Give the backbone structure.
Amino acid sequence: MARMTRREFLRTSAGAAVASSFAGCASRGDAPAVASTPSDLAPNRKGRRVIVIGGGWGGATAAKYVRMQDPSIEVILIEPNKRFVSCPFSNLVLSGVRSIDSLTFDYDRLRKQHGVKIMHDTSTALEPDARRVRLAGGFLAYDRVIVAPGIDFQTEQIEGLADAGDRVLHAWKAGPQTVALARQLKEMPDGGVFVMSIPPAAYRCPPGPYERACQVAWYLKTRNPRAKLLVLDANQNVISKPALFRAAWQAYPNLEYRASSKVTKVDPGAREVTTEFGDKVRYDVVNVIPPQRAGAIAVQADLVGADKRWCEVNHVTYESVKAKDAHVVGDATIGIPAPKSGTVANSMGKIAATAVVHLLNGRPVPEMPPINTCYSWVSDSEAMAVVNAYRIENGKVVQIEQKLTPGQSTLYAQHATAWATSIWSDILA
Amino acid sequence: MRALVIAVVLTAALGASGAAAAGPTDTPGFTKAFSCSACHGRAGASRADAVPVLAGMPAWYFKKAIADYAAGRRPSPEMEPFSKMVGTLSVDEIAAYFAAQPRESSPVGVDRAAVAGGRAASTQCATCHGEDGRGDQAKGSPPLAGQPPGYLLNQMKLFKAEKRSPGDENLTKMKTLMRSIDDTTLAALAAYYSSLGR
């Protein structure tokens, strides 16, 4: 074999891994097809290596910030998707206010500007004791791993959902489903009924479903004025910015909100959902946002707690309380009094990266709290926000203050756009 | 028929400042300030129209702004909690960090046609903010040069509406001046000051 640089080797090996994952036809969610004698996909490692699993808001940020703070550390980011699609602002795709392309970015700058090695592949298993990550084609060893798998859906909690396939969309991971749901909304019959269901907390982006309700209601009011939006919420009340959302909904008489209305069954043949109290609701278009838990790899590696849903972490280092040298960031975590938001995931990514760099260099880890801002668009031109600031007290994150905007405005919409512009760059550029 | 697709001009371009523009990352200030980049850009080099550039901001003005936000004197639902957080982390270190970053002008485009009108209207502003828009600490006047036009315009409108630093008598002159200028001229002033130092 001709001599190769390590980078060339990794690139070639990554290609082989991707090819073999197609050859094995390992569909996500099935038992991982583990080779009987797994091969090391990047052997002859000399320096320190950090693997980041998941290139979303937390993971991509973490990969960049490790490299920014110590370029001598090799960082491999494992992410199945070739392009990053922003969940924040994706409700605006439903209303046609933004295009999905305007929320879609590639990973080139992480690679070229920061030297992050990116493998577009799926991690099938994490083995914390062996300090390695399994891929379909072999394994990668690490010194520390940052697990940022986002969320997966508990499809089994709603009867009929698993078999419904693409007939019942969640659109809760921005991408093809977002575009498909936008099309369904656009093609809904005149005077039709759009039903959306909100899962019990905790789920990704607490204000997200209520923002989506605003966007769907705004679209219908503008384009299909006899149509109706029915929101079935499993929770007892709007769980984020309740007074602000209820004020915003005054502009949408076409929106009916029902609290304590958990959807337990969906029947796409009859175009009908059933709530836990047996109420049946007919729909023309349905959007079921299913109950959620941490992404599959966190469950497989047993990083989740007794509830089998979310990962508890050290509040300063983001190291898992259940596995050494494995850090978890973003929506997959629980226990830190901060919401499952994009800003928090970005914040956790920076802090975990800093902790990893300090730990690998044998230095004390600085104590940094996360921050949160969640902007919600209530129409095509107005937004509002909730902001949370935190501090560390005795090794735990505690809130300093939560503040809401006094209402909705075009000024906060400008701030929302500014936030998105800045944070997308902070994650990827 | 009303076109529904608006504001889609953002071309999925992230545009970054150079790789080395992050400043030293091994100073305590870097870690304490990196939360700010979610809105204010890398090392304070804001790329957004409605959020100010912090890179190169003099420490005295950064600290004044943080103190005013934290006390609610400069009302901002976003900055009030974060200013309290800056206080718990060390306002001196964070102010010093941003002051030490190379001053970066906003990359947001300005209306060149408006710049000339803004220059003509800027005589009274220059009394306190300087001919070059670099500000004057002795007068408590911050630098304006190179800030994003949207941010500058929003601040002038907030002064005009008595929503920025309401009741602050030190700013009476500023607010009176803002009330005497129509919004088109305010936009021209924003374009002019944003264009300075680029």
